TrEMBL record, chain A:
It comes from Azotobacter vinelandii (strain DJ / ATCC BAA-1303). The lineage of its organism: Bacteria, Pseudomonadati, Pseudomonadota, Gammaproteobacteria, Pseudomonadales. Keywords: Hydrolase, Metalloprotease, Protease. InterPro entries: Metalloprtase-TldD/E_C (IPR045569), Metalloprtase-TldD/E_N (IPR002510), Peptidase_U62_metallo (IPR051463), TldD/PmbA_N (IPR035068), TldD/PmbA_sf (IPR036059). This is Modulator of DNA gyrase. GO terms for biological process: proteolysis. The keyword Hydrolase applies.
UniProtKB/TrEMBL annotation, chain B:
SUPFAM superfamilies: Putative modulator of DNA gyrase, PmbA/TldD. Residues 217-435 form the Metalloprotease TldD/E C-terminal domain. InterPro entries: Metalloprtase-TldD/E_C, TldD/PmbA_sf. PANTHER family: CONSERVED PROTEIN, TLDD PROTEIN. Pfam families: PmbA_TldD_3rd. This is Metalloprotease TldD/E C-terminal domain-containing protein. One of its GO terms (biological process) is proteolysis.
């Protein structure tokens, strides 16, 4: 762990610069990817990506240079490029960074179990191959795949004010999907869709239920192929955690990003229907809605002790009792807006600069069991596992689709329906939150690829959520409009 | 750093390390990019990224695995990294199961292109951009610099592609929140061309000052500008993959199965010449492929793996089976007649955030974004507030496609996930008799 730390510190100490402040963020990411598709082991892929971003502040202007050349000369050249660019931009910069707090601090943040070794390729291929073989032989099952990806990330942040912050994390992503097709229609059922991973080790695979899941997933794919389309019209909507996470992500997380509200993202990721003046009093959702930024939840994808600007991270309510409290904004955005925020300035790797991102963004559990949630619905639908998402640039008008739907009539689950979609408007949707599941319904999920920023970045984001019920939502199926 | 020389040095250091029946492929990608972000016509964030990545694949009979690693650009530093990757692979490949779908191209081939562009110095570009944006609310990104891609194998394959380019992707915002999106990309920055693009954006911005119209959901006549059609093709491109078609993952499966049709106006090629992507993939030289011919299915994109699995013949598509330079044929609609032929309906400049409502049915949803106008009797009346569409490609590019514009436009991607994207699409605008808005 932190193999290059002492050499890197020595090289950093030897850097020379005329900048007022400079910093280095070194990232080493290693990965291994295994997959068995239709009972055939695909060639495994491994990776090791190392580089550093050097940042220089000159007379209040900041610029960066990222390099995969980590030699003394390579780092010095990068720092000089950053300094030159900062000087060249004098008079053109939007922001004044002179008064920003310097992070400082010396701390190691090593995820629990990080140093516990994992098994090798032969073991994983055996596990994945056995799961693949559990998919029943049926000519309609045209494709299936079982996979595992493991990524380890070690980051070292050093700066000219003496900070040394080190972080080590391991991310584990199991995957399983089965596609059934009759030549005209096809339906895919998966374990968690695109959003299935946690920090940890081999226990994540067990905790997320990969082993032994294939027969059920295959059976559900076949059920979907035979199922009728989801009927159109207003219904109460029970969202399971593997769709709640997408709902939270798109219609709470992104709208609350402070850099969007400040206009930085208007050319790409978009803006927000939330305004600066809304914080502290805007009714975002029903009184049942409590949303936290929680970087301390063990195992969740974006648990950490400090963000990539070096700000210490702690749990905060973003929405409490349905009222908007604070945005997702790091130290820079807080300084620009005068609003309180959270430690969420994050970069995807060494080659991109930190910006405001979600981290762990969770809906807090309520008091209803799953049976009580279902029992409280007269005419509704359960939807599970996101497969489609689309939302406008202000994060307001959305349409989401799921893999799995079941109608609910008079408090009981009924038949399976395919192509369950729903649409709504964020500003109203959360006000229709009518019931929140208890802790027994909570799942800890997240996505490894939340996209945003110019240049573009995809980061890991965690979402823990209970199942939730929303009243009177516009639902519809596929094919005919 | 001389990237081509570096790639050769890597190959020279790798060849003597091979033993017995071992074979290798080496994929090489590098860029030296400058990125400048703008917000409110000032510089929001600026920097440079120099990165080099190589993917080494080791083959032993039918067994293989790959290792991707970052490199410094200094051969003395990179030689041991490459050797370490080789040793890691060598330690595990013999124990892997044979790959029944491995079909390696063992014939030697060579493809080389080098386009020496002249992207502007960052200070020059920033100066011109900020001068031109005086008094405007401009937001966007300027990305520039050289990019390199290489591929070689121990069987004599060698591909090299070097290009230097810039891509300025920006929006001008009106005080009412409406915006015009523009792009200026290429290999040589021309101050006059940039000034004309900015002037055109300023002109369109004036239309946005009118009060925005709120439309009710329903069916409308619509014109999709090339940038809007580009988003549609972005969703459909992967649908030509042989594996996607065989495994129920393609939105075009009904077209290829003969149970759905597109308009005879639609002809689509994967065209190597004129595109900005390398002329090769890891499976050899790319080929021109006619994917759609007058609305009917043509070739699929077939990598060697799919060829082996499904009994097809590979056509140079590479293992991703994704088009890199789509070109749609133009039609008879003169650009000057677009508004008149639209008559009354929506002029849609850009679409955004598309996804599938029902993939096998080719049904897509997405949002209008940036300059979208309501047109009556061939005249622009007002900007339109953001609307959601939800419609099947077999309808709006099927019986409801009325015309395509005469001169297709080349669109260069501004995407920078991981690295600056290469590739391009050349597309006309599309006049639709019916386009369904739902929210």
């Amino acid at each position: 762990m932190f193999e290059s730390a002492s050499e890197l510190s020595r090289r950093f100490a030897a850097l020379r610069s005329g900048a007022d402040f400079w910093s280095l963020r070194h990232v080493r990411e290693t990965g291994e990817h295994y997959r068995v598709r239709r009972d055939v082991a695909l060639p495994p892929a491994f990776g090791e990506d190392c580089g550093a971003m050097l940042t220089a502040r000159v007379a209040g202007v900041e610029a960066y240079a990222a390099t995969s050349d980590l030699s003394q000369a390579g780092l010095q050249a990068a720092l000089e490029r950053a300094e030159r660019m900062a000087r060249a931009l004098a008079g053109h910069a939007l922001l004044e960074t002179r008064d920003l707090p310097l992070p400082g601090g010396v701390e190691d943040d090593v995820a629990p179990g990080y140093e516990r070794p994992l098994a090798g390729p032969a073991h994983w291929f055996e596990v994945l191959g056995a799961e693949s073989a559990r998919v029943p032989r049926d000519a309609r099952l045209v494709d299936w795949s079982v996979g595992l990806a493991v990524t380890c990330v070690e980051q070292i942040q050093l700066d000219s004010a003496g900070a040394c912050l080190r972080r080590a994390q391991r991310f584990v992503y199991p995957s399983l999907s089965v596609t059934a097709s009759d030549g005209h229609d096809s339906q895919t059922r998966s374990l968690g869709g695109f959003n299935f991973g946690q920090q940890g080790g081999a226990e994540v695979i067990e905790r997320l239920g990969l082993i032994g899941a294939a027969p059920r997933i295959a059976d559900e794919a076949l059920q979907l192929l035979l199922a009728p389309n989801t009927p159109g019209g207003p219904r109460d909507l029970l969202l399971m955690p593997d769709q709640m996470m997408l709902q939270i992500h798109e219609s709470i997380g992104h709208p609350l990003e402070l850099d969007r509200i400040l206009g930085d993202e208007r050319n790409y990721a978009g803006t927000s229907f939330v305004r600066l003046e809304d914080f502290g009093h805007y009714r975002y959702g029903s009184p049942l809605l409590d949303v936290t930024f929680d970087p301390g939840r063990a195992g969740e994808l974006a648990s950490y002790r400090h963000d990539d600007d070096g700000t210490p991270a702690r749990r905060e309510y973003l929405i409490r009792g349905g009222i908007l409290q604070r945005p997702l904004g790091g130290a820079l955005s807080q300084s620009r807006s005068g609003l309180p925020g959270v430690a969420c300035s994050r970069a995807c790797s060494w080659n991109r600069a930190p910006i405001d991102r979600m981290a762990n963004l969770n809906v807090e559990p309520g008091e209803r069991s799953l049976a009580q949630l279902i029992g409280g619905i007269e005419r509704g639908i359960l939807m599970s596992t996101n497969r489609s998402w689309s939302i406008d640039d202000a994060r307001n008008k959305f349409q989401f689709g799921c893999e799995w739907g079941r109608l609910i009539e008079n408090g009981e689950l009924r038949g399976v329906v395919k192509n369950p979609n729903y649409r709504g408007i964020s500003a109203h949707f959360w006000r229709n939150l009518a019931a929140v599941g208890d802790a027994s319904t909570v799942e800890v999920l997240g996505t490894p690829c939340c996209g945003k920023g110019e240049p573009n970045q995809a980061v890991r984001v965690g979402h823990a959520s209970p199942a939730c019920v929303f009243r009177n939502i516009d639902v519809f199926g596929g094919a005919a409009r | 750093m001389n990237a081509r020389e570096h790639f050769h040095d890597l190959l020279d250091s790798l060849r003597p390390l091979l033993r017995g029946d071992e074979g290798f492929t080496l994929d090489y990608r590098a860029e030296d990019s400058e990125f400048v972000r703008f917000n409110r016509a000032r510089v929001r964030q600026a920097g440079q990224v120099r990165q080099i990545h190589a993917t080494l694949a080791l083959y032993l009979g039918e067994r293989h695995a790959r290792f991707e690693l970052s490199l410094s650009g200094t051969i003395e530093e990179d030689r041991p990294r490459l050797r370490h990757a080789l040793e890691r692979l060598r330690a595990l490949v013999p124990a892997l199961a044979p790959d029944p779908y491995l079909r390696l191209e063992r014939e030697p081939w060579r493809s080389e292109s080098s386009e020496a562009g002249a992207p502007p110095e960052v200070a020059t570009a920033v100066g011109q951009i900020l001068d031109a944006a005086a008094g405007l609310d401009l937001v966007g990104i300027h990305a520039a610099g050289p990019q390199y891609q290489g591929f070689a194998s121990s069987w004599g394959a060698f591909g090299w592609h070097a290009a230097s380019s810039f891509n300025f992707d920006w929006s001008l915002f009106h005080a009412n929140g409406q915006a015009v999106k523009s792009a200026y990309a290429g290999q040589r920055w021309d101050a006059g061309t940039f000034a004309r693009r900015m002037a055109s954006a300023r002109e369109r911005l004036e239309y946005l000052g009118r009060p925005a119209l709120t439309l009710a959901p329903g069916d409308y006549r619509a014109y999709l500008a090339p940038a809007a059609l580009d988003e549609i093709l972005d969703m459909l491109g992967g649908g030509f993959s042989a594996q996607a078609l065989a495994s129920g993952a393609s939105p075009l499966q009904r077209l290829f199965a003969g149970s759905a049709r597109l308009s005879p106006l639609v002809t689509l090629d994967e065209r190597v010449a004129g595109g900005l992507a390398p002329a090769f993939t890891g499976e050899g030289p790319r080929r021109d492929l006619r994917l759609l011919a007058a609305g009917l299915p043509g070739e699929r994109l077939i990598g060697s793996r799919s060829a082996a699995e499904y009994g097809l013949t590979a056509n140079g598509a590479g293992d991703h089976e994704h088009p890199l330079s789509l070109a749609m044929a133009g039609g008879e609609l003169d650009e000057r007649d677009i508004l008149a032929r639209l008559d009354t309906g929506l002029y849609i400049g850009n679409l955004w955030y598309l996804n599938f409502s029902d993939r096998p049915a080719g049904r897509l949803t997405g949002m209008t974004r940036f300059a979208t106008f309501w047109v009556e009797n061939g005249r622009i009346q007002a900007p339109v507030g953001t609307m959601r569409f939800d419609d099947s490609v077999f309808d709006f590019l099927g019986p409801h496609l009325e015309a395509l514009t005469r001169e297709p436009e080349t669109i260069l991607p501004a995407g920078t996930y991981g690295a600056r994207q290469s590739g391009s699409r050349t597309l006309p605008g599309a006049l639709l008799g019916r386009f369904t808005l739902t929210l």
